[in-house]
Specification:
Elements (H helix, E strand, L loop, with lengths): L28 H7 L9 H10 L2 H17 L7 H15 L3 H14 L3
Helix pairs in contact: 2-4, 3-4, 3-5, 4-5
The chain binds zinc ion (ZN).
Amino acid sequence: MKPKCKICGYVHLPDHAETFVVGADGLCPMCHDLTAGNDNYDKPRTEYLARLQAMTDAELRDETEHMIWLSAYAANNPRSDYHWQCDLTYKIWMGRNKIDEYSRAHKAVMAQCGY
Ligand SMILES: [Zn+2]
């Protein structure tokens, strides 16, 4: 059994760089970075992760659209929590094997903004 990321389901493949491996915490480096440490309100980022993981697909879809919008709105503030939170919704869809839902959410937000 290859180690698999607990969030996005990423499986370490032999032809990938050795730096891109699932670590001892069961996460790939990207998911590890997204959930390490605290948010700007000093709450552990894993709290938001747990909230996302508890959501139904419909709830996650709403949250994803919300985060895509907020992340775009906060484009001039790289330290905004919305950026990693938005990235994390993408990883959760990956883990659910429904990455199309993220693309649909993205299109829906763009349509609402008149693009
Ligand atoms: Zn991952």
